[in-house]
Amino acid sequence: MAAADPERALARQKTLATALVLAAALLYVVSKALERRAPPMACVAAFAEAAVIGALADWYAVVALFRHPLGLKLPHTAIIPTNQARIADELGQFVAEHLVTAPRVAQKVVEADPAGAAGAWLAQRENQKLVSAEAPWLARPGLAFVLDEIARRLQRDPELRARLNAAIAARAGTLVERSRAELARLIADEAHAWDRGHAVRTIELAIGRDLQFVRVSGTLVGGLLGLAIYSLTRIVL
Question: What's the whole-model pTM score?
Fold first, then answer.
């Protein structure tokens, strides 16, 4: 059910945007028909005409991102599928250079407080038994006391936790720095391997609702601009 929600949400937004442009087109026809008998309808016609133009322009721009509008293979359309390889390479580079960086990873490690989590985990008797079972060479008299002491210090000594967290964070940052090129290549290779249709649909579902809002706002803003231009023209000329 949850997987179908983005599909339905996108379909609703498409319906709204399309209904709005059809309403603007109908309003234009009606207002033009009444314009001679009711001159103020010229303002309505100017609004509706510009709204339709704005809506169609934004519809073309939105569709051109994902496919060829009306099936016409015009230049600079179907932008995402046509440029999938380049997008994959740049995505990998962007993630490696700006998102998964050594300072950012180190900061997240410190925020996660792995030393504190380890102390809380070791304080549980069941987990101490797991340590003994996984490392029998550690199983010796007094092990429980040692583990309790480690857990207690990790939980109660903030300076110790800070030092351990800093050491872990530094190590994680070093690994990220060394693996940056491999990370970029891994992401790029994965994106290259995406089925083109599936990739387009996934991106469309992720941002499609916002793009449909662009169509809606384009209709309304276009209409208002058309009305403003008409009014200024009447005033000036």
Answer: 0.71
